Amino acid sequence: MTKKTQHFAMMQEACRKDVERAFGVLQSRFAIIKGPARFWDKHVLHDIMTACVIMHNMIVKDERDENDYATISTPSPTQNVEELNTSEVERFRQFLNRHKKIKDRDAHFALRDALVEHLWERHGNEAM
């Protein structure tokens, strides 16, 4: 394993831990994030995640501002969110297209190698 790939592995592990920790906090607070999301449009997922992050930050700020008062937590209702204008067949077709892009082995390795080089160029002198 080269110094570049070691540096990449170290950076990736640190980022992965941060993302898992943040996502775990959001999942414990918002039921909509707990369920499967494969068939959802990525723009809908983006909006859901953005809304949950904003609400989480508002809750944290409110709890920080009023830590003397007991907060009442209410369970968030779980609803099936569906796009109204997209048929099920179209949604499935979009899912298959996204899945195909994700599974493209050559693109995966090309992106990974480019990221290794980018991280090394930016932080190589600081590494190890």
Task: Describe the fold and architecture.
The chain has 128 residues and is mostly helical. Helices cover 70% and strands 0% of the residues. The chain has one domain. α1 packs across α5. The longest helix has 27 residues.
Summarize the helices and strands and which ones pair or pack:
Elements: H1 3-29, H2 31-34, H3 42-65, H4 88-102, H5 105-123
Helix pairs in contact: 1-5
* SS content category: mainly alpha
How far apart, in Å, are the first and last alpha carbons?
A: 13 Å
**Net shape:** flat
Q: Any idea how many domains? A: 1
Protein name: DDE Tnp4 domain-containing protein
Organism: Platanthera zijinensis
InterPro entries: Harbinger_derived_prot
Pfam family, one: Plant_tran
Summary, kept brief:
It is built from five helices and no strands. It has about 130 residues and is mainly α.
List keywords for this structure.
flat; single chain; DDE Tnp4 domain-containing protein; Harbinger_derived_prot; mainly alpha; 128 residues
